[in-house]
Amino acid sequence: MKRYVYINDENLAKDIYCDNRISNRKYTIWNFLPKNLWEQFSRFMNQYFLLIACLQLWSLITPVNPASTWGPLIFIFAVSASKEAWDDYNRYLLDKKANEKEVWIVRQGIRKLIQAQDICIGNIVWLRENDEVPCDLVLLGTADPQGFCYVETAALDGETDLKTRSIPSACMGIDGVIECPSPDKDIRRFDANMRLFPPFLDNDVFPLTIKNTLLQSCYLRNTEWACGVAVYTVEDFYHVCVEMIRGICGIGNQTKLGMCRGIPEPKLTAVDAMIDKLTGAIFVFQIVVVIVLGIAGNVWKDTEGRKLWYVRYPKEGPWYELLVIPLRFELLCSIMIPISIKVSLDLVKSLYAKFIDWDDQMVDPETGIRSNATNTAISEDLGQVEYILTDKTGTLTENKMIFKRCCISGRFYGNESGDALTDAQLLNDVSTGSADVIKFLKVMAICNTVIPVRSKSGTISYKALSQDEEALVCAASRLRMIFENKNGNILDIKFNASPLRYEVLDTLEFTSDRKRMSVVVRDCQSGEIFLLSKGADETILPLTYTGQQVRTFAEAVEQYAQMGLRTLCLAWRKLDEGEYQEWASMFKEANSTLVDREWRVAEVCQRLEHDLEILGVAAIEDRLQEGVPETIETLRKAGINFWMLTGDKMNTAIQIALSCNFVSPEPKGQLLIIDGKTEDEVCRSLERVLLTTRITESEPKDVAFVVDGWALEIALKHYRKAFTELAILSRTAICCRVTPSQKAQLVELLKLCDYRTLAIGDGGNDVRMIQQADIGVGISGREGLQAARAADYSIGSVSGTSLFNSVSLMAYNVFYTSVPVLVSVLDKDLSERTAIVVFVITIHSYAFEKSEMEEVAMVALSGCIWLQAFVVALETNSFTILQHLAIWGNLLGFYVINWIVSAIPASGMYTIMFRLCKQPSYWVTMILIVATGMGPVLALKYLRYTYRSSKINILQQAERLGGPILSLGIIEPQSRSPLDKDLAPLSITQPKNRTSVYEPLLSESPSATRRSIGPAQRFDYFQSQSPLASTYTRKDN
Amino acid sequence: MELLNHSRFTQQELPACKPILTPALVMATFIVIGITFIPIGLSHLSASENVVELVDQYDEVCIPADSPDPDVVYSKRIGYIQDETTDKTCIRTLIVPKKMKQPIFVYYQLDQFYQNHRRYVKSRNDEQYRDPSASAKTTNCEPEAQLSEGQPIVPCGLIAWSLFNDTYTLSRNDVALPINKKGIAWESDRTHKFGDNVYSKNFQNRSLIGGGKLIDNIPLNQQEDLLVWMRTAALPNFRKLYGRIETDLEVNEIIKVVIQNNYNTYSFNGKKKLVISTTTWIGGKNDFLGMVYIIVGGVCLLIALVFITVYLIKPRPLGDPSYLSWNKNPASVQ
Fold it and tell me: Where is this region: Disordered (chain A) (predicted)?
């Protein structure tokens, strides 16, 4: 469906499309109670409790006081309802703030200040520098005379560079109609047309692309002002409807960002799911029991029961008489699903969440942001994660590239100090004006797409497409080659206080195929034309002019790569005016071809990029977060699989993966690449990778596959089955160039295979993934708070603190503290077995003259309490003072309470407990119950423990005995998170028949690998271009 | 708050003891259990052995029924027991098997009597029994709450209405053997549960008479048979205290019991027994606890033995990480 946006004509738009009001609220004041109750009762367990509570109101059938069920039930519902209400109120406040933010709109040529929520489709919105874009706009004008403006889209796609947006050509009009598709979620496409009304241009249609738009929640940067017409508002008519029908949370957010974020689904943990399933199963069981016993009861009543004259059954019962006995049985059975399980689960979960909040080791020392568990309900799932999907930038790495070393014309700088910027020799060469060094610095400063931004105080910061470029430019400016200003195509550079000016003639853009980028610049003073190139060694080194010695550079690259640094070769060539002109026309032509443009452009570029003079090699460090390699290694040893999903380029991704132990270096590891542009290619490549993975599965090899966004799209669409198999087989995956929704799709894929997933990320592009995963961890870091808001857990900014330590810490916490939950879950199951023991012993030891009802009941109850205390004690792995208090205090509390009640004359059990405590046979019976109940449990547990140990048991034993296993927790003793990989009793979703890749746990010292990967950094590369899977050694750039 | 935030509790650093099931610990536990349980069981058995118990089932003997047809027997018995006019005296003789030292307890035992039936158990009103001013309160007492004219029945309810009313008179060598019926009910029942100025009213005044009658001018808490009866039994076979004999009985003495066989257990084929028994520290005769103690102790020793054997034959080190599943790979090559 298309929509027509009439620029600056409100009346036309107001009726059809919605305003710009943001509403993340779930409830209104009026629908809160019904809606919240409806939601709560959509869980089976709650329906069940309600049914039981209602039945208990009928005094004819209830064995207990109905308050015993109604009280807790109302309490639980009140608590969760008030929690919801509080959350919703906070959301309302946030919305209100966003809605009432003031923006300028232009109406009839006059600027007016209105609230963001009042923006209509067709309004012209006027933004100043650093303003957040309030809704999706089509750009109409900017301060820049050429019609450019810069936006930061970090919140949208996580890319921190500035993007250029331009106003549509020949768009000076103010009246017109924009014909655009109905809202969708693709943030990289916008196919619309604009038609201007007379008197400007009659019926001429201008195509609009994403280049002409400002999307919501981007920031306007480096441009004094810009204005645009609103085409999609936050809350839009159509999609409110669509999403209402989906009915999940009624977020009518319909801008590109809103659509891209997707709808958060309520998350249920494994325990929750299991309890729900169990509840269902128990309910069915109950029904069977109730029917069988009900019939038996009615038959007994009519045959035998009527003979019991002392009971005096009435001759004619009411019509529902037959129902009474079955319903009584139902109520009796209802304790099979104790309501307390829900109370205690909820309480324990929120306690865990609090523990995470409280934890001092998860506080970021730099910013002091504490970790925050937003979703209190899923903490126990942290211990059951099987797949961790992580964003790269800002999560694994600090997202700070730093120029570290360089090699200029055979001379190595920065080798002694480890930092070229402080290398005295280099500084000396710079100040003396060594020609090679100056050329090198010029390429560093010019050959890029960086935009310098001058702040008010006069300092210059750089906004760059890639962090590499930013690092290079920054380093150049530290070395006195300061890139000062970019004005259209004119670059101002200052070297040693003398200004230089260059005009950029052409930019030969970076593509992942070419692995290099070049610019053609004209020196404005001399008029000479230069080609400046930088790129990966394997693409630059072969392009040198004949006769240049490249050996030193190759050695430098090798050396730097071994240190885990990213390398770039810088080169240049002087061009003749004629050669350039000839080439430029070809380039222009290639750029305007419609078919195979990319290929044509690449080919044309190649014609210019030859006979280069290599100037040097720059080595850049992408700093990993502290502790990341160790943590990943530890987690991988624990059998947790890691996937890295990044919007980054494949090379960068692989590089990072290598340096953080994500994939192991050559002899152990193998990288398989899935790529291809067409369906066929992808299919072939996928099959080959799958085959290799299957073969290597039994080998002690660490196989990882790498896939890029395009191939992934095809694979997910057409070869889903094969890809799923691969996903299960492979422990590690690197997905590059993936969009936010692809990230979410991958999470979904893994979830469909019944794996527990944890997604971690920091940017707006990770939001969907985080929402989709079983557990989302957001980092409130440099890329804004969006991810943190969507996440179940947010952690303070990661720089400084080891993020993955935190994750493992969380998992660890849960592992050691989740025992009470497990016990409360297991409790029922155990007491069913042992209740028989209690019952049999009680009725036999309290037979005949002692069989007074209150006494027998109390003996049986005490028996249960005693037994339970011991069962809990046996199931508890770690006793702190709290556990002792809970277990034995509970036992003591039972007696204290009963003594008190026994002292009240009016109570039914007056003196009962005192009488019992005086009888030796009471205590003898208790001891017998405990011994008989616990003996088999202990024996079985011991046998299982020793002869069929679960992973946890072994690790517990090892920990207790201080065994060698501790050596894997080299980071901190706390990061023994692997231990909780599957809490055995709960792992109902454990996939079967999954053989893991061999991992020597103890054979090597993990401390050997930190940032440098060791000398042998080679990979088997199964390139799709080489059908014979020719293996060649690759140097990492 | 700050203090709380950095306490050892919130940081989960409380000193913890993490016991694991080492073989030694488990085996020691079982051996200790075995060694302590067997003596306890033995002492229990011997105590139970020392109890002298005389049981006489009299329901079938004390009723005339001479027909091969069970249905006829059934209806005849009911006709007999429900006939108020017939003399239901029945005489039994018992021989003391062993010397019985006083106090000797006299119980009546009913089998197949469901005092724990839901309808029955609930049919009482403790407030009415306790408080003379609450005599009109008969909630829960249906169908034995009020006379048809609306006057309340005190004590109301099915339990009281079905009061057991067989009586026993004992004699030894034609000398009456007194049964002391004072103090057979619980102290707490006499002092708190039943009022000392609550008197029975309209009790058993309706056409359908259940069990025993009460004396209207003696307060409820002194009619201890009622108090004993009102302590409902949890199981269908139960004994209730009838009285105490406060003299010793010698071996082979012959005791004559005159039973007034009034109570109807014939409708539901229940049994009635007279039990005369001594007690020890475990109470009455009960072999169950002793037997189970010995069995449990024995089994524990056996288990310990098995564990030791298994441990010796097939030792397995604890905490060996090579057993971790992800470290097990068939084709692993170091």
Answer: 997-1037
